[in-house]
């Protein structure tokens, strides 16, 4: 059976989720790498290939847009020509739907595991 792309289903991978979260404000690729590590307390580190491949695909499907670089205080003068990315309304919708899907999944997992003691299973 052919595997369906998350870009078709809207069921985001963890990397896709983090990228969309990080593009709530204009940001460039390198900044995405540092933000991803920071907001996941270091549990997720994303390399350039992962970031730029994900950004390129999200641009293609319209979940993010490339915008003119801002002159914010966190940019060094040499960074003014870097591309910046911002989530689109479609990307916001995809992100919201995926977060809701994950909440429902976690609620189901919580309900299911409530019947089991941590580290042991009921026999019977």
UniProtKB/TrEMBL annotation:
Protein species of origin: Scrofimicrobium canadense
Protein name in UniProt: PadR family transcriptional regulator
UniProt signal peptide: none
SUPFAM superfamilies: Winged helix' DNA-binding domain
Annotated InterPro entries: Metal_resp_DNA-bind_regulator, Tscrpt_reg_PadR_N, WH-like_DNA-bd_sf, WH_DNA-bd_sf
Pfam families membership: PadR (PF03551)
Domain Transcription regulator PadR N-terminal per the UniProt entry, residue ranges: 20-96
């Amino acid at each position: 059976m052919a595997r369906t792309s998350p870009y078709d289903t809207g069921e985001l991978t963890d990397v896709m989720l983090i990228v969309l979260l990080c593009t709530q404000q204009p940001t460039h690729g390198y900044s995405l790498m540092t933000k991803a590590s920071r907001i996941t307390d270091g549990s997720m580190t994303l390399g350039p290939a992962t970031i730029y491949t994900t950004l390129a695909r999200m641009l293609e499907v319209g979940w993010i847009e490339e915008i003119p670089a801002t002159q914010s205080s966190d940019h060094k003068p040499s960074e003014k020509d870097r591309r910046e990315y911002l989530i689109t309304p479609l990307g916001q919708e995809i992100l919201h739907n995926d977060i809701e899907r994950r909440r429902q999944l976690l609620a189901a997992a919580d309900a299911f595991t409530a019947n089991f003691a941590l580290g042991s299973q009921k026999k019977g």
